[in-house]
Amino acid sequence: MGSSRWFGITAKLLRSSCQKNTLFDNFLHTTPVRLKTTVKNLKGRKTSSQQWLRRQLNDPYVVQSRLQQWRCRSAFKLMEIDDKNHIFRQGDVVIDCGAHPGSWSQVAVQRVNATGEDSEAEVGFVIGIDMAQTAPLSGAQIITGDFTLPDVQQKISKILMGKQASVVLSDMAPRACGIKSLDHEIIVDLARTALTFSHTVLKQGGHFVCKLWDGNETKALEELMKTYFHTVKRMVPNASRKESKELYLLGIGYSKKMDKS
Ligand SMILES: C[S@@+](CC[C@H](N)C(=O)[O-])C[C@H]1O[C@@H](n2cnc3c(N)ncnc32)[C@H](O)[C@@H]1O
User: Could you tell me the pTM of the whole model?
Assistant: First the structure.
């Protein structure tokens, strides 16, 4: 079967399986169908944009995320984190900070049985928060807003209605300005904000995952996490781009008793 026909069928499948056009547009934005068209016009594009397109086309995680209907390739990072550390259980409540376009929330929804697909298991719940408008996702409640603002955090607490979360995720990242030390400081601040918020919502034994771009303050954050979690690990998932300084800190087994704040 020719590749264009094959991609056409994939796009058709995606269209029929997505309830909302906005969601389908998210997929279409990165489908090979559109990339193929765009690639024809490479000559008029900036070198950086040509490089981006070529990288997307040659990235197996991008290809697989389209085929498996994840909203972006980041899904593979969280799946690997969970496969190796078992952070999710069916019935869990998960807070996903920096959720757009939604692939981590998709993974969480699936792994905590938030849509009740497994009728014999407990049904979980996911709250996704992002400054960017995120397409609706069955099994998740999406909040659009800046997570660092108190009123956004209050909205999350309100949705929880006194329930505690089993997992807090932060894949929040600023738009990188290119000054590595500054980008590092900003992403560490976002992770710290998520960690501080965790104290108000995370249950005993719960887990915390945050994304960082490695730098001077990584060690200090890791040490801080050790005062709250039974085990703290660094992880660089296989899907993290080789040229990136991205890493994830995992706090496994939250203990309020260890909280020295
Ligand atoms: C790497 S993307 C997240 C990808 C997401 N985990 C997924 O799998 O679809 C980082 C996100 O963090 C969000 N972000 C950055 N700062 C934020 C803030 N203060 N509040 C909420 N979201 C924020 C950005 O808007 C961006 O969508």
Answer: 0.83
